[in-house]
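job 3f2a | input accepted
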Amino acid sequence: MPPPDLDDRFEGWDDQLARFPTDDGTPAPRRTSRWRWFMRGLGGLILLLVIACLWLAITAPLSKSLQPPTPPSITLLANDDHTPIARRGAILGPRVDAATLPKHVTQAFLAIEDRRFYSHWGIDPRGVARAGWHNLRGGSVREGGSTITQQLAKNAFLDSDRTAGRKIREAMIALWLEAWLSKNEILSRYLSNVYFGDNVYGLSAAAKHYFGRTPATLNIGQAAMLAGLVKAPSRLAPTSNLEGARDREMVVVQAMVAAGFLTPAQAADVQPQRVLAQGPQQLPSGTYFADWVLPEARDQAGEIKTEATVRTTLDPRLQRDAERAVKRAGLRQAQIALVAMKPDGEVVAMVGGKNYAASPFNRATQARRQPGSTFKLFVYLAAMRAGMTPDSTVLDEPVTIGDWKPRNADGRYQGRITLRQAFARSSNVAAARLTQQVGVKAVIKAARDLGISTPIANEATIGLGTSTVSLLELTAAYAAVEAGHYPVQPRGLEDVRQKSWYQSLTGGATTMPDTIHTEMLDLLAASIRNGTGRQANIAVDAFGKTGTTSDSKDALFMGFAQGLVVGVWVGNDDNSANPGLSGGGVPARVWRDFMTQALNLAPAAPPPTVDDEAVDPDSIQTDVDNAAGSIAGAVQGLGLDLHLGDDGSITLGRGRDRDRDREGPPPEDRRPEDGPPDRE
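job 3f2a | predicted structure (680 res):
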């Protein structure tokens, strides 16, 4: 027979025990059932404790309290190896050992943050009650009851939300830390990671940032000021609110007196502290180039445990030249972007908009806009590959391709002309005929070979730039023509990581045949010498192409000279029209301005300017040819007549005949009758 159950074996004992009276004559209590429930409850508590310990061991490992709460900073350097251009991430200092610090340093934090730190077990009931009473009297949350251990738990393991669930987790982790770490270890980790404003974390970094000292050399006032920052570091940072930081410093000093850490006489000797002038040492927290290159810089730096520096390809002088050229463009509502790179893809200057602070959106790398006639580069490359030459001819007459009837922007047609002439005057119908002749697939292949990765529609209209592309990628495509090999990969870092075996097999550069390379340079030179790119003329041999989309929504100039490849885009973020804007206007002149400064060239006398409504009249600049002994006549540009008399007098008036003198019809007549929009 199986042994009887223990409960069965002792069944009835309570009744039997109850028969025996106690010393005072009362029946004995029923202890067995109560004991059973007590043991069950104790077992349940032990089980919950084990589960809690396992949960904490997984979600709150002690090693995490040693890690910084935010990624350490990475500083980007220009290509000169010493000019910092941007910094991202937190400023962190070495960890501190609270036991080795002067007593007044640790006492300043204990006095204002957790006076009973050494007597509680992670949670201070008196502090919680005091804070609750003060908040109740004030009618709002004005004081917190968190201990230093709880603050370490929150900073290292939790987010900053104020829910009850988060406070419960915070309390549990605080008890966990107190159980496994010594008080010195807890205080040391807290001081090493706490935030002090100005993106500075940890006592070592804060002492250096604000006072140029180490924690061991801080005086009482400096330690009090740093301890006071913890309450509201962003608002009280002394570099921006010195008066507030000094007021808080004195609050900490009085707290040290109340805690018995200082005598009233010592407190009276503490003076308001001065901080280092941080202005000249500050780096911009954001630039268009830095935003673009930072992800790759972090990959190159690997796991960052302390502050790291990474060298970039940015040229400080060329970047200043680019920013000045953009500013001198005098744009009103329109935006602008500029990319300058070497033929090997090293980006040396980048402007992604008129004002980074107002709009960090990078129009050089993030925007996808129609390139207009700058896309004809690939049409003519496909034609050269098909055996044509710049002297081959094409019919510059209206053509119908399916339902599409492209036409020239100026409404003029010259019959049979050379490809050189067609490229220079940016004939739309010639580009459409060439696309039809060599095949759309050949044009797409030419674009892909030169590095265009964005979607390209499989239709004849692509020859006029109907597919979208980024300015950075388009500039790299023109760099491939300048370099004579393709594709060119834009890059912003000096140190290029070794390619994988797959990249080595599939990503090698292809050399452009010398004949085709020479022919493409011939076409691009013709555009600047006597074509739509005349406004980009400079004092050295230059090569380029203009581009203007329908209703002048986008205007571009792409070109290169003396080993510098530059792309310029102008347009509105909302893709609205800019009447009068063209690639041969503002973009070409910005390109010329930048290249003249970048290459240290003497200004070249440009041809008469065209009307450009996107330009602020207040920023008009006039080029005057001083070679002639006497200047007379009228110089027309931007809708103004500038009359220069023989005696040197200047008369300025509106140009009444500007539309009549301008080549081609006014902008409102550029819309096609049928099919997709025509481009320049």
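job 3f2a | Residues 60-66, 139-143, 608-678 have pLDDT under 50 and may be disordered.
job 3f2a | closed
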